[in-house]
Amino acid sequence: MTEIIAGNDSGNNEVEKPRFRVVWLVYLALGILLLGVLSFVTFRPILVLPRITLAPGFSLTDQDGNRLTNEDMRGKITLYNITHSTCTAPCPETSLVMKDVQDQLPELDTGGLPVELVTISVDPEHDTPQELRSYADSLGADLDRWHFVTGPVERLKWVIGGGFRLYFDHMEDGRIVFDPGFMLVDSRGILRAEYRNADVQSERILRDIGLIADEIKNGDGANKVAYEAAHLFMCYPPR
Amino acid sequence: MTEDCEIEPTTDNEIEPIEDGGTEPIEDNETEPAEDNETESAEEKPGFWQRYKWLFIGAAALIGGFLVGLGIVRFADRSYSYHGTVIQSPHRATDFTLVGLDDRPVNLSDFTGKAVMLYFGYTFCPDVCPASMVELAKAMELLGKDAEKVQVIMISVDPERDTTEKLNEYVTHFDPSFIGITGRENEVEAVATMYGIFYEKHEGTAATGYLIDHTASVVTIDPYGYLRLIYPFNTPAEDIAEDLKHLVN
After folding, report:
1. Which of residues 178 through 207 in chain A touch B, CB cutoff 8 A?
2. A 15-54 residues with CB < 8 A to B
3. Could you say which of A166, A189, B105, B168 has the lowest number of CB atoms within 10 Å?
4. Would you give per-residue pLDDT tens digits along chain B (249 residues)?
């Protein structure tokens, strides 16, 4: 009995074999694809920064009394901080980190993509363009790449509070309190990184500027899918 | 599925005789002199896993393959290459309230379930705004039935001259489904700031009155209320329509 069945089956077997292989080829292909996806997630060959939200629109006045708008920053990677010129310890001196970044920028290869810095003062009453200029000088700011701006308090509230989600307020005793922070905006006007403390390492900011520059340089054409996959799998650098 | 089922007996027989001979030779010997039917049922009992092993493996592989396939399809779906600039905001787009026709309040959240395209402009706008509105109207036409799932809203940055009546007359001229909203000067500025829009008045000619410089990009919010896509000025209607078709389905 068993012999007969075996005989029948071996006959079947010959017919089945090619189909059998096709099925397994499909499984093999799927397995390789799954492995590829898994290894992409595990090894994170490309790191990207999240596309958090739109950076706020603004029109403010700079240290020369000129208008500076978010449209002027389009096409450039921009690092923002908020402070005011009379901010000295114990006030969080975030501008010192900005200075550090400025000094190290020439060594960073951004593939020709300009990187600029904007310091927004939350004290428009005191920080006239002249004051901002002397503040810039005291920091050793390169004014070709670093802008110092301010504007009406109501507008600053929308930009800093509404747009960048950082708190600031003028106290009744004249003190100004604010959340220290740095905001990194890409050349398309999208907020890519937020650093919500005063003692951020400038190296980390520079690394992130480099990541944005890499993505903008390479993220089009054939590599677009790879970069989109990196976004999809949240291949973000360590915070 | 059929392949697996047909393969099954082959492998059964390849394995079973060995198993039977090895593990339960006594039972085999006992049943064999009896009827054939009994032999089969007796063989089935000890070799249940052996008998159905390939069926299970096949089924598991099929389910696994299906899941992987689903994952790939979902990935392909999500990695659809949008023409617009993509944003994956973890926060829902900030809600706001401005006024529409007949001074009725209009909230962004009123349109949850539809993709919303926000355009900031004004009716006196000489060239940029009409060009953008024409493209958006063309995109709506290209969307066909999906246009029902899209709401175009023009926010006037010139509340001084744009009454809600005038504004709505202006936008419906491009497409009857478009709506126009505005508000007090500082309300409009607050909304514009949040959506990355800059605008500022400047002097025009005597004929035009003052003009307003403004960011001319279109901000797109998905049906769930998340900021998703930005279209710079001059994006062709075809690109917008293709993206939106994807976004609303």
Report:
1. 188-190
2. 16, 19-20, 23, 26-27, 30, 33-34, 37, 50-54
3. B105
4. 433 434 444 444 444 444 444 444 444 444 444 444 444 444 556 677 777 778 878 888 888 877 777 776 666 655 578 889 889 888 899 999 999 999 899 999 999 999 999 999 999 998 899 999 999 999 999 999 999 999 999 999 999 999 999 999 999 999 999 999 999 999 999 999 999 999 999 888 878 789 999 999 999 999 999 999 999 999 999 999 999 999 998
Alpha carbons A147 and B154: distance in angstroms, whole number: 32
Interface predicted TM-score of the whole assembly (ipTM), two decimals: 0.76
H-type alpha helices, chain A = 2-43, 94-104, 129-139, 153-156, 202-218, 224-232
Q: Tokens standing for A79? A: 């690092």
Instruction: Please indicate whether, in this complex, the C-beta atoms of B3 and A16 are within 8 angstroms of each other.
Output: yes
The neighbouring-strand residues paired with B155 are B120, B181
